[in-house]
Please model this.
Amino acid sequence: MSSSTSVRASSQVTASQGIETPSGHEPDERGHFGRFGGRWVPEALVAALDELETAYEKARHDPEFLAELDRLHRDYTGRPSPLTDVPKLSQHAGGARILLKREDLNHTGSHKINNVLGQALLTKRMGKKRVIAETGAGQHGVATATACALLDLECVVYMGEVDTRRQALNVARMRLLGATVIPVKTGSRTLKDAINEALRDWVTNVDSTHYLLGTVAGPHPFPQMVRDFHRVIGLEARAQVLERTGRLPTAIAACVGGGSNAIGIFHAFLDDPGVRLVGFEPGGDGVETGRHGATLSEGSPGALHGAFSYLLQDEDGQTAESYSISAGLDYPGVGPEHALLKDLGRAEYQPVTDAEAMDAFALLCRTEGIIPAIESAHAVAGALRLGKELGPDAVILVNLSGRGDKDVDTAAKWFGMIGQDESAEAADGTAIAEGATQQRSGSFADPGSETEGIQA
Amino acid sequence: MSERASGPSTRSVADVFARCRAEGRGALVGYLPAGYPTVDGAVELLTAMSEGGCDLLEVGVPYSDPVMDGPTIQAAADTALRNGFRLRDVFGTIERVSAAGGNCLVMTYFNPVLRYGVDRFAADLAAAGGLGLITPDLIPDEADDWFAASDKYGLSRTFLVSPSSTDERIASTTAASSGFVYATSIMGVTGARDSVNAAAGEIVGRTRPHTSLPIGVGLGVRSGDQAAEIAGFADGVIVGSAFVSAAEQGGPDAVRALARELAAGVARAGLPQPA
Ligand SMILES: Cc1ncc(COP(=O)(O)O)c(C=O)c1O
Model:
């Protein structure tokens, strides 16, 4: 397989290639991916979407824009992100070779910065001075607040009240960076409702404001544009895996909330039919309980937040409430290109429960010294599952989309290191450490004794 | 002044506007979510609005994610859903309000229609006596199924134009519409406001050359004076949040009284003058 795949050396891959060179998998001129995508929006937003589309089409062929984006990603983000072999984790995956694409090492701690810097530069070009964003885990909010600080833009971030509590560290980071964080108290008080509120703001202030959407959902051109800004993940990883292993990966594992990190890594492999693309959705308490966010696995087609795609909805087309331990995946919609990839059978989507994700979280911490975001832990859990299925000859590429600092509180509670109403930040570190060492029965015991439980 | 302009013979939105015109005035269009506060309660409120002088009723479909609505209508939709509103209730509501003499349109976010089936929704709406659909988050670009269904069942298609719409889009959106065109007077979500925005006259003036359809103006109207001001240049005055607030505060009597005040304002203005 590798002989036919000519690529640039990984050191020559740049972010601008993802936007300058069309992927060969473009939506139609109205932004449809098959029957999905498009613009399911109020007329009031059409002019702004047209303006954005025009600005993007111009920028992607403007050498100055491309150079500025590449410079920022090299000197500020720290791209390229490394590829890490994780042999000790691999022992828990049936011996399959697992490689982590380290988006967690980007500045601000996740893949979100790839898209944010691109859109923030576009905001400047459009002459807008105010940026709004939604955030679930807070990673997109932090990345947006960061870019706005860097580029002198006013920044307002909408965040569900539930998420402001479970991702309190990121709320503090955003405020330190000068952003205004508005807790949203409607509906389920999570990501879906934050997007509603951001859309209301945008409809009202569209002249002065850019809505810096954080994933590959929403109306055209967002799904295409955000994807292109993230294509660098897959372009780099493809070259890195080829250099490291001399072959293409057997399978790729990514977590899917709105779908941006997944599409970013999948895209470079769409035309490699031998590479399995597997998205892992939040299975919450288990899809059979109804408490989950597994939109592609369990949902049905419909329109939400500007795009026609899969969504979780009831018989009357009312959006269902999603649930996940992971704020960044707790969303009842998904990007339209994933809906197409699912229908085409080119990608597959599987749920991973809270418990599976947290087992994988613990395992990666203990075996490799990497604390992943809980979102990304879903992909790690997926890789363990794939490894057992595919066997020791498989090479599995995992998009480690973010780091877990923001999740220390949730994890410490999950593993019983602190009480439900304590906070890890407030707690005495020794209490956590003692909890960790005494917690022999929980998932956070040392991995040797844990292996059976995790693999069962 | 006749309390209610409508009669049982009204079969289309065009008829309603034509009859208002014959009376030398614009039309008053009142919005209320179906199921608010309960299904029966909404029937009573809508009937009272019609009796008070609403020439057309926009029967809203409560939706989980109303991104075009401000706090008042969001809260009303929440109440309706909490009290058990189901989508099919909208048809029964329209049947009952129509039987009492109201002229009903449905105003809905589009996903409930998609889920129900566009053709099936149109069939059931027509059978219930509904006259058409107002679609705040559906633009003509995505509306192929709705074009087919509205033609098939003789329903009007009201799309929205906005102050941010280009002339090209105003032209294509009005060309895709039937019954009347909805001009949003401000950039923003629904909610009563103290003054009529200057942009209201401007958007009507920009829309007029592109269509012979009546133009209704909405977003923010709450008083008879505001209604008169808008009726000075628009063919229809659309009032939503103010009716919801009135319903909350004083039930059917309050919405009937508000409709009277607004209808008097509309009548006082006479026929719209060119902007
Ligand atoms: C680290 C991380 N991974 C994944 C996601 C999910 O988003 P997406 O599916 O768009 O990659 C988030 C969202 O907040 C995140 O913070």
Observations:
- Chain A touches chain B at residues 30, 38-48, 50, 186-187, 192, 196, 199-200, 203-207, 300-305, 308, 313, 315-319 (CB under 8 Å).
